[in-house]
Amino acid sequence: MLTLCGFAVSNYHNKVKLALLEKGIAFNEQEVFPIPTPALLAKSPLGKIPYVETDDGVLVESQVIMDYIEARYPQPALIPADPYRAAQVQELLTFLELHIELVARELYGEAFFGGKMDDASKQRVGAQLKKNVAGFAKLAKFAPYVAGDSFSMADCAAIFHFPAVSAASAKVLGEDVLAGLPVKAYLDRMEQMPNVQSVNAARVANYPAFIAAYTR
């Protein structure tokens, strides 16, 4: 049986977990924080989570894991059968994770962990986020899902990245960079899904353990 290793506060862990739940795949879950112990580095060379233990071996990087899950357990599909529509989902994922979440991550230290950014860095990140969000807005459908009329891998990521990006930008930059998109209505719809509710409940419950792991 597949084992998902990571922790429930992580957006990328939750992205994979939601895919597994939506596909109805039986799996174990093991709590692992990204503290570079020898045991973690033996499984994940860069000390990153999530990683999965499969019957064939260990896989790291959330999108690699998602692609493996889709190939190994193709139904219900999280990628359209049509090649162009499938590429559009991957395009949205790339924009969301590389051009929005990764850029916004520079804000997380001040937004969530008591750090401090200088004003020049804030201006740089803010300008880049506004540019990239405008590009993403030209691709996203929200009709009712990010890629259109079907739930996809893009939703597995967006459901967890959007709140973090909105909260961090609002707190550090004084402006929610996603405010021009129908994100709130979208997240309200997604929150009606039982598996999303389950993953979010686990995220909230895991927060004290997450903080304790980094303050001990």
Q: What is the structure about, briefly put?
A:
This protein has 9 helices and 4 strands; from the N terminus they run βαβαββααααααα. It has 216 residues and is α+β, with helices and mostly antiparallel strands.
The biggest sheet amounts to: 4 strands, mixed
Share of β-strand residues: 5-15%
- Percent helix: 55-70%
Please state the CA-atom Rg, rounded to the nearest Å.
17 Å
**Could you name the CATH topology of the largest domain?**
Glutathione S-transferase Yfyf (Class Pi), Chain A, domain 2
Number of strands: 4
Arithmetic mean pLDDT? 96
Low-confidence stretches: none
* Helix and strand element order: EHEHEEHHHHHHH
Distance between the termini: 33 Å
Number of helices: 9
Strand order of the largest sheet: 2-1-3-4
Question: In the residues, how many domains can be counted?
Answer: 2
Q: Shape, please?
A: globular
Per CATH, the class of the largest domain reads: Mainly Alpha
**Class computed from helices, strands and strand pairing:** alpha+beta
The CATH architecture of the largest domain comes to Up-down Bundle
Question: What features would you describe in this structure?
Answer:
With 216 residues, this protein is α+β, with helices and mostly antiparallel strands. It has two domains: 76 residues, Glutaredoxin, CATH 3.40.30.10; 112 residues, Up-down Bundle (Glutathione S-transferase Yfyf (Class Pi), Chain A, domain 2), CATH 1.20.1050.10. A four-stranded mixed beta sheet has the order 2-1-3-4, with helices on one face. Strand 3 and strand 4 form a beta hairpin. Helix 1 runs antiparallel to helix 9 and helix 4 runs parallel beside helix 7. The longest helix has 22 residues. It is globular and about 50 Å long. The two termini are 33 Å apart.
